[in-house]
Every structure is written in C-alpha cells, then in structure tokens.
Write a structure and sequence with these properties.
The chain is mainly alpha-helical and about 120 residues long. Helix content is about 50%, strand content about 0%. The model has no long low-confidence stretch (mean pLDDT about 90).
Length: about 120
Amino acid sequence: MPTIRSLFNYPCRRTIDGAIKYLHNAQKPEGGWVGSWGICFTYATQFALESLSLGGETYETSEYSRRACEFLISKQRTDGGWGESYKSCEVIKWVEHERTQVVQTCWAAMALMYARYPHPE
C-alpha cells in the first residue's frame, strides 16, 4: 500500500516529512499527544496516529506508533472502553472521566486501527 509520501513530488514530500518530524518531537514521554481542547489526549493521539500511518509508520515499523498504542492501551478500562475527562486539558495529564465515553472509545479504537495494533483483543 503506498504511503502519502510516495504519492507526491519532492517539495510535498519535504513538507510531509517535516510534519512527521513535528509529530515525533511533540509526542509526550508517556506516548500520547496533547491537544489544545477538552478531551486532549484521546483526540490528539488519534489524529497523530492517523497522520503517522499515512506516512507509513505503524505499530510494526515505528517506535512512535508503538509508544502511542501502549499509552492508549494503558488507559483502557476494564469494560473495554476509554474515558478521559475534559480536565486533562487543564492540567496537561490524563484525567479519568467517571464513566466510559463512547466517543473517546471510538477515537482510541480508530487510533489503534490506524497504527495497525496487532492485538485486537
């Protein structure tokens, strides 16, 4: 499957490579990315993993993708879902919501799919 890099000429590839480098540098040590809005880690990590996958980086090929997947998996709840509070954005660290949230579960699942996380269970 071609990556987005392979579909464009050199100037475009240089821009894509710069964006991917930015994502590498912006990743937090625990593996997620911080967004600038309410549900910041789940949402930002989903978009970052989608972008990395378009550049050819997946769980199998990229330490950045692996760290992000492990970060998300570490936040998965016993019921199988995810629940991040809007307070995460205020304190710039993951804050659990009282309950599992369907939208955040979708974002996390999509992120894992983009990264081709190899453990579907």
